[in-house]
Amino acid sequence: MVGKFFQKPGAEQSDRVPPGQYLTKGFPVLTYGDTPRVDQEQWQFKVWGLAQPKTLTWQDFMALSQHDFTADFHCVTRWSKLDVKWTGVKVTDFMQLIEVDPKAAYVMEHCYGGYTTNIPLEDFLREENFFAHTVFDEPLPAEHGGPMRLVVPHLYAWKSAKWINGLEFLEREELGFWERNGYHRRGEPWAEERYSGGF
Predict the structure, then answer these.
(1) Distance CA 192, CA 136 (A)
(2) C-alpha angle 65/163/151, rounded to 5°?
(3) Could you give the 3-state DSSP secondary structure of residue 132?
(4) What does the pLDDT read at residue 5?
(5) Which of 59, 131, 152, 169 has the fewest CB atoms in 10 Å of its CB?
(6) Which burial class, exposed, middle or buried, applies to 182 when counting CB atoms under 10 A from its CB (0-12, 13-18, 19+)?
């Protein structure tokens, strides 16, 4: 497989590729279960928990400031793709619409299809995170999480939830789907926080 689809990073890329990762020549699709297909007209995004409840439509997201992003993407299954080009909405811009209780310390990402993943609030609020609806100048395909996914570049890609449709703000940590099934609670690539053998 290495050589045909993946390659070892060169010396000039070593500071961008975490330990144990290979560079992919494509953009692999890894999905557990069926791929949800959601029209933009029916798509909704809800906020609840330790936050003022709010529901946003696709039009509400498109009315926010739109930005282009270039970020490296690291999958826990040991592939990385450098310089992925996205368009979307900064998490920090989105959060200006949300009233969060000061007791909130964690976020549960909820998605169409029932998938969930947890993330500490301090990781979620980083300036480089964004909601993406476009990749390489094309609408984000359903296979890659369209119509919208969260992108959290500094953590493994399962934290960049595909088909996202809501955020639940929590006082205490709760584990999402993969975290309950053996993945690490946080997922820091440079520390190789892949699985739950060490927290």
Answers:
(1) 28
(2) 55
(3) strand
(4) 65
(5) 59
(6) exposed
Q: Are 91 and 79 in contact (CB under 8 A)?
A: no
Apex 141 CA angle, 136 and 142, nearest 5: 155
Q: Quick one: DSSP state of residue 158?
A: G
Residue 11 confidence (pLDDT):
63
Phi, then psi, of 97 in degrees rounded to 5: -90, -10
Beta bridge pairs of residue 84: 71
The strand pairing partners of 48, in sequence order, are 168
**Could you give the CA distance from residue 84 to residue 188 in angstroms, rounded to a whole number?**
19
Q: Quick one: average pLDDT of 11-27?
A: 83
Rounded Cα–Cα distance for residues 81 and 49 (Å): 34
Cα radius of gyration (the chain): 16
- Show the beta-strand stretches assigned E in 50-129: 54-57, 67-74, 79-90, 106-111, 116-120
Enumerate residues 6+ apart whose C-beta is below 8 A from 52.
Answer: 98, 99, 100
Q: Quick check: 2 pLDDT over 60?
A: no
Q: 3-class SS at 71?
A: strand
